Task: structure prediction
Amino acid sequence: MDRIFRLTVESMWARFGWLNVSAGWFWYGVVYLLLVIALEGWMLPRSRRWRVPSWVIGVMGTFVAFTVAGWMFFVMNVPKGRYYAQGRYMFPAAVPLAFFLAGGWARWIPEGWEGARVFGFLLLWALLDAAAFAFALLPYFYKGG
Result:
């Protein structure tokens, strides 16, 4: 079950070549750090500027929970050795997850940094994508994996 969970989470964020090419520990570490920052932003916000009605948070959270529960039901009922640990099964929860990530980051960064916040996060994600491409995909396909 640990392998299934790990492959599913990794392939949701970046796992290439029919799940054969990992993006690397550094890339996943940075992604997990950004997830922790978003979670911390919801728990201890530094800015109250980004306010959301509680019913929206409830609907988004319920949708994520149902998606994860559906994935768990699928994984538990697939015969041994025939599991499909692919993050694409979590794609229905992509919009609510993006909502929680953006909301957590928006609440974490102090007021007055709006332009820097948007530019900084876009730049960070672009650099992460470039790093995954340069350190995972290119070496795998051009150096024989």
Residues 2-142 form one domain.
